[in-house]
TrEMBL record:
Gene3D superfamilies, alphabetized: 3.40.50.1970, Dehydroquinate synthase-like - alpha domain
Family under the similarity heading: Belongs to the iron-containing alcohol dehydrogenase family.
Enzyme Commission identifier(s): 1.1.1.77
PANTHER family reported in the protein's UniProt record: ALCOHOL DEHYDROGENASE, ALCOHOL DEHYDROGENASE 4
Fe-containing alcohol dehydrogenase-like C-terminal domain mapped to chain residues: 191-375
Source species taxonomy: Bacteria, Pseudomonadati, Pseudomonadota, Alphaproteobacteria, Rhodobacterales
The UniProt record lists the keyword Flavoprotein: no
InterPro entries: ADH_Fe/GldA (IPR001670), ADH_Fe_C (IPR056798), Alcohol_dehydrogenase_Fe (IPR039697)
Keywords noted in UniProt: Oxidoreductase, Plasmid
Domain Alcohol dehydrogenase iron-type/glycerol dehydrogenase GldA: 17-178
Gene this protein is translated from: fucO
Protein name as catalogued: Lactaldehyde reductase
MF (Gene Ontology): alcohol dehydrogenase (NAD+) activity; lactaldehyde reductase activity; metal ion binding
């Protein structure tokens, strides 16, 4: 039996107040949870979310998210909601849409507009949302944002992404329906799937992982690895497992933290404007190699090797690294990163919040080596 490194004596808490419905067809229950006026948040294509919008009938306002949320995009959406006594926010889309919905549910009706100093937000507002119900329906299998209490926003003046955190950001309901995900373009399926895999591995190896989070990640990681291979080929049979892997990763990271790949991705995403999942996928193997020997890393590497057979004379992660390259996942240089900029990116990545929970403390030189390996 492989050991997962569970320590049964360390005290821990479990925090997941979201009512979750999982499975094909679970989105059909949406109208049961809605009180009007309702606003609907969706992505720019609408391909997956338009049928969900059609279930609602009368919608007071539709907010379209063109990209990852920022202070400006949230304030523009709040302006559009002025004069609407919002009772329900339905967010149907990828992580950016769900994060936008979370912030709107907290701030709608408050009269507040965001500044780049999130410390100015009334803590009481972030801990208890006033009368606005939030329902999240993910259309990508990756972020797990439907079960987390933070929203990631681009903060251009700081050159990074920062989270707004608080219990008020937990959705009331998450309807996790694999049928909403099955039409994702191949690149979205790849990026989101790599995000879910990275979240499972980083949550599993995090220094604040718990028996609860490790039970989730240990079960879901092999499911995720197998499903990722399947869904990028266009085979819809993998979507239920991918959807579960994403949901499990969200519950696990909310209760157990992440690691250096997410710390660096937060910095790179803001600096390069690159998709979060693509960055996570590009950073995952170099970070796991840097974490070699830390608790849980060997277990995850063995699970990776069981699905992605190592290349000749390669380590346990070499098969996954080769598969990622074969999928055409961009390298950091493809997003505009250069060798000259790596020391500063390494410094910023080392102090990012996710990095503080990495499996093992890493030096700035190691962060730079990780970036070089992904360049
Ligand atoms: Fe992520």
């Amino acid at each position: 039996m492989r050991r997962c490194g569970i320590d049964p004596v360390t005290p821990f808490a479990i925090d997941c107040p979201v009512q979750i419905a999982f499975g094909a067809g679970s989105a059909a229950a949406l109208p049961d949870f809605v009180q009007h006026p309702v606003i609907f948040v969706q992505g720019s294509s609408g391909a997956a979310s338009d049928p969900v919008l059609a279930m609602l009938g009368d919608v007071a306002q539709v907010i379209r998210c063109a990209g990852e949320p920022s202070v400006a995009s949230i304030n523009a959406a709040l302006d559009a909601l002025d004069g609407i006594a919002v009772q329900t926010v339905v967010a149907c889309g990828g992580g950016s849409v769900l994060d936008t919905g979370k912030v709107l549910a907290v701030l709608a009706g408050s009269g507040m507009r965001l500044t780049e100093d999130f410390g100015q937000i009334d803590p009481a507002l972030l801990e208890r949302r006033a009368n606005v119900r939030l329902i999240a329906l993910p259309t990508t299998a990756g972020t797990g944002a439907e079960v987390t209490k933070n929203a990631v926003l681009d903060v251009p003046s700081l050159g990074t992404k920062l989270s707004i955190r608080g219990r008020a950001l937990f959705p009331d309901h998450a309807l996790v329906d694999p049928d909403l995900m099955a039409g994702a373009p191949r690149s979205v399926a790849l990026h989101a799937g790599l995000d879910a895999v990275t979240q499972l591995i980083e949550a599993h190896t995090s220094v604040v992982a718990t028996p609860f989070t490790r039970a989730l990640t240990a079960q879901a990681l092999p499911e995720a690895l197998g499903a990722l291979r399947t869904v990028v080929t266009g085979d819809v049979a993998g979507w239920p497992a991918m959807a579960w892997a994403s949901l499990a990763s969200g519950v696990a990271l909310a209760n157990g933290g992440l690691g250096a790949a997410h710390g660096l991705a937060a910095v790179l995403g803001a600096r390069l404007g690159a998709p979060h999942g693509a960055l996570c996928g590009r950073l995952l193997v170099p970070v796991m190699r840097a974490n070699a020997g830390a608790r849980g890393v060997e277990h995850c590497a063995a699970e990776v090797a069981a699905v992605f057979a190592p290349v000749e004379n390669g380590d346990a992660l070499s098969g996954l690294a080769a598969w990622i390259d074969a999928q055409g996942l961009p390298r950091l240089a493809d997003f505009g990163a250069t060798g000259d900029g790596l020391p500063e990116l390494a410094r910023l990545g080392s102090v990012a919040s996710s990095s503080q929970k990495n499996a093992v403390p890493l030096s700035i030189e190691t962060y730079e080596a990780i970036l070089k390996a992904a360049l």
